[in-house]
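[#protein-structures] MJ: dropping Quinone reductase here for a structure pass
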Amino acid sequence: MSFPTSTKAALLQEPFAKHTISHRSLSALKPGEIGIKITATAVNPVDWKIRDHNTFLPSYPAVLGSDAAGTITAVGPNVSGFKEGDRVFFQGIIGTYDSSTFQQYCKMPAELVSKTPDNITDQQAAGIGLATMAVVTAFYHSTGHGLIPPWEREGEKAGQGKAIVILGGASSVGQYAIQLARLSGFQRIITNASLTNHEFLHSLGAHVVLDRSQSDAASFTSALGGVPLMFVFDAISAKSTQVLGVQIIQESKSEGSELVTVYVVRPEAIDADAIALGQSKEPKVDIKQILGIGSAPDLRYLSEPMAKALTEWTASGLFVPNRPLVVPGGLGAVEEALALNKQGVSGQKVVFCPWE
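AK: finished. structure tokens for Quinone reductase:
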């Protein structure tokens, strides 16, 4: 096995265009890199938002996709712990087309790659990297809440005696947030979702799951059960969820709490009404927005140990991947997969397999 000099890929030939299937060249492996045959790639909202807003793409033709699983076909110099034939999963690198995932081959820094255990499929593994890194940034980085991560000493006690509210528990990000909150030792994990997803979210570690259609600030406050609220994590980052997050903190009178939300690609990423509401009365609520790109230099101290931890957690069953919704058709399914994700799916991760 070796790393090819070109690969079949789904390409954006120009801004806002539909994908076309063609070949593109690949550069040789550098020290510390591995070559990967991509067997499954997940679709995330960031993919269609990047195209809709023409951002994060330095040149055209462009390759989208930053969430995948596959098999190592080549190992570059100065790489240890990996060999040809290993199954792996990873968060790709937005804007670095040789490390993007809507194609049949890519290359990645080995330190950002997790090994896929035998107890999960590549379709399951493909949806772990990006969404988990978003939560890791929100929970453990200084731009988020800055907790000690659970792979470090005392990290499993970071949430001891405290509650966390996770808005959008059935989303991909929400599911991983529930599990990382459990691994961080939170006494009370409260989320909301449609009724069909309640049992599943309880199995991931949520203590209270409210009906999404009926959950208001008062309902969340009641669900705290007297346990102090540390912070609210908004896995959706819509106007309505940002406002609700602020309302929950103010309704529960949680001094020192804050709303942490994921970055969304749109002109007004943090809603102006949510900001104004947060400063309108006591307790004042700060809104922090995070961008979880694991390859960023200031996040490598989290993303590298996270990659190792995910290998162990998924193998032991401590960390459960999203349930995949596989769209057939190989690279030709990319537009259908993007449309399905944009339309919205409940409790599942849209995935397609580039080699079909």
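MJ: nice. The CA atoms of residues 137 and 333 lie 31 Å apart.
AK: one more thing. The chain has two domains: 6-128+321-352, 132-290.
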